Design the sequence.
């Protein structure tokens, strides 16, 4: 693809018309400035965006956020909505890490108060929060209990002492998707997930201690309990082996199912079935179980982070308690109602590396945020800034209540590993005052900031396009990863 | 392509392997060896202490490749088992039976979380079969 294939709708919206390829059912739109468009043309992500515009039942536009990068099937940063009842749901579209997401926790402490103990805090976080391959968690479950956990989501965590009522209120869907059915999940998925609750895993997942760097919306920041120089914590992880196996199982199963429904696809990873079909319903019930698993995973990690703060800081600072700001999913399919061509339509919104960003007044938001809009959490790459945004009327009108999810990769893992040494990167980060606790130096190199786009630029686009608005910028002071 | 029948190639977010083989049997074998290489730096250091017998079936040859590699990834994730010695006993387009010999890897340098179908197509070239497999890591 080339730049001339796009029509510039606004300075931040670039459209690929439906006529671009015969199999497109709707136009595709990419949120970007000129430089991000040029970067995206460097890999196959925009072709993948066009592929998503071919899916049965897709309405309005296939969308891509400015942090787009090449995935498999959907691009990472892709959003589509399919009209119910017969529009499709795609397991490959949701992706392997079902309900991968971000949680933001806030302390009552300033950076100055915590700074002398940052090393102790980083080590306590690493010791308490299991990470890396093959390290199990401390939550021991029977198969029966796991079934309960994935049915009840964060309610299970509340009953078992891992959560507070306020945590649940401030979690997308209150940490529980109704209709999860463990009977639609394979034994293998359960075996992979049974000892991974409350673990971070490997790859790009992390726990990060941050400092509030700049406030852009005083009133919204206050509502979220955020103040200048405050110590906050981000968790980025998902449904671990459980979710990966649910996706693997259904992508396999659907290889045959697509033919049954006469669906033709440009990429086998996009396999899907009508949501009204038994197969579509089965996947939805299994996906919800994995989503609930992920909510509990981040909730148990929250519990372990609270423990770490108490262990490392008790008696040294004025208060060690932590409260939740919000928790969002960025890999998920959700049944929602949106306006399409003047009609209210029930759709299945696939957000693959994109965040729900509901605007002010949405009835699904907790009381505390209903009048300002939904907090959106956008982690940057390791060592760089992250952002807290709000959903807007613009995101509701333009992007099915969705916005970006991160910085977006530009360099392959292999390239990053070749050009950056993990140990040197750690030294560099440490020199700039960021504590690093990583299980693998090679893994660290793959996640180097240079392998990603500039998150601030991504934020300028979503803010400028009106599909989110800036509230707070935070910068890292300690990173824990597998 | 190296003489080993696989090559690790770049993919923005994940890892990919290009694999060749004279026939499906060789393709499955080389793909497994390629995945071993992604997971452990020195495959020769893996002891031969464990044997597993697997029989797998799938919808077509591409699916078989995914199911086969997913099985090996599962052993690695659950038991840290890597199998440098693989005997493919029966191979058809829709099924494979194999005996795996290997042991615990001291450290897995790469956690293969899933094997994808992304643009997965086994193609016939003048040299035999060729396929590119993208992994989720």
Sequence:
């Amino acid at each position: 693809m080339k730049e001339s294939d796009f029509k510039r709708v606004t300075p931040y919206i670039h459209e690929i018309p439906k006529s671009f390829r015969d199999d497109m059912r709707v136009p595709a739109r990419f949120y970007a400035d000129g430089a991000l468009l040029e970067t995206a043309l460097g890999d196959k992500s925009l072709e993948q965006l066009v592929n998503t515009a071919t899916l049965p039942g897709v309405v309005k536009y296939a969308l891509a956020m400015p942090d787009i990068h090449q995935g498999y099937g959907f691009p990472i940063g892709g959003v589509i909505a399919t009209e119910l009842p017969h529009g499709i749901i795609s397991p490959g579209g949701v992706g392997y890490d079902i309900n991968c997401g971000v949680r933001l926790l806030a302390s009552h402490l300033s950076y100055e108060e915590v700074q002398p103990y940052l090393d102790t805090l980083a080590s306590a976080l690493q010791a308490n929060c299991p990470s890396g391959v093959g390290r199990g968690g401390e939550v021991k479950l029977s198969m029966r209990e796991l079934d309960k956990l994935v049915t009840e989501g964060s309610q299970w965590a509340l009953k078992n002492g891992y959560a507070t009522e306020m945590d649940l209120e401030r979690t997308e869907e209150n940490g529980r998707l109704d209709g999860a059915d463990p009977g639609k999940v394979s034994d293998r998925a359960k075996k992979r997930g049974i000892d991974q609750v409350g673990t971070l895993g490997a790859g790009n997942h992390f726990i990060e201690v941050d400092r509030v760097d700049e406030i852009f919306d005083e009133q919204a920041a206050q509502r979220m309990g955020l103040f200048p120089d405050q110590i906050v914590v981000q968790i980025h992880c998902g449904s671990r082996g459980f979710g990966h196996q649910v996706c693997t199982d259904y992508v396999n199963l659907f290889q045959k199912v697509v033919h049954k429904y006469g669906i033709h696809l440009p990429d086998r990873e996009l396999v899907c079935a009508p949501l009204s079909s038994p197969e579509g319903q089965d996947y939805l019930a299994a996906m919800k179980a994995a989503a609930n698993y992920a909510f509990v995973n981040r909730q148990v990690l929250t519990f372990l982070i609270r423990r770490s703060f108490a262990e490392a800081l008790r008696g040294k600072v004025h208060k060690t308690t932590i409260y939740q700001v919000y928790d969002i999913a960025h890999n998920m399919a959700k049944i929602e109602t949106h306006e399409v061509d003047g009609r209210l339509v029930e759709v299945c919104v696939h957000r693959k590396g994109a965040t729900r960003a509901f605007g002010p007044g949405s009835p699904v938001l907790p009381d505390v945020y209903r009048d300002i809009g939904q907090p959106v959490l956008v982690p940057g790459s390791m060592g760089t800034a992250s952002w807290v945004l709000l959903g807007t009327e613009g995101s509701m009108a333009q992007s099915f209540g969705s916005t970006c999810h991160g910085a977006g990769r530009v360099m392959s893992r292999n390239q990053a590993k070749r050009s950056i040494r993990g140990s040197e990167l750690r030294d560099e980060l440490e020199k700039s005052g960021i504590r690093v606790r990583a299980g693998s130096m090679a893994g660290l190199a793959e996640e180097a900031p240079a392998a990603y786009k500039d998150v601030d630029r991504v934020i300028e686009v979503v803010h400028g396009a009106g599909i989110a608005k800036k509230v707070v910028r935070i910068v890292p002071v300690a990173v824990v990863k597998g | 392509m190296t003489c080993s029948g696989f090559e690790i190639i770049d993919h923005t977010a994940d890892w990919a392997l290009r694999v060749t083989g004279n026939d499906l049997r060789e393709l499955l074998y080389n793909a497994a060896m390629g995945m071993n290489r992604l997971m452990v730096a020195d495959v020769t250091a893996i002891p031969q202490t464990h044997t597993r017998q697997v029989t797998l079936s799938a919808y077509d040859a591409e699916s078989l490749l995914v199911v086969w590699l997913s099985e090996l990834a599962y052993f690695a994730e659950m038991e840290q088992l890597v199998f440098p010695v693989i005997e493919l006993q029966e191979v058809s387009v829709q099924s494979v039976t194999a005996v795996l010999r290997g042991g615990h890897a001291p450290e897995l340098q790469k956690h293969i979380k899933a094997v994808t179908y992304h643009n997965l197509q086994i193609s016939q070239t003048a040299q035999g079969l060729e396929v590119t497999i993208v992994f989720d890591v």
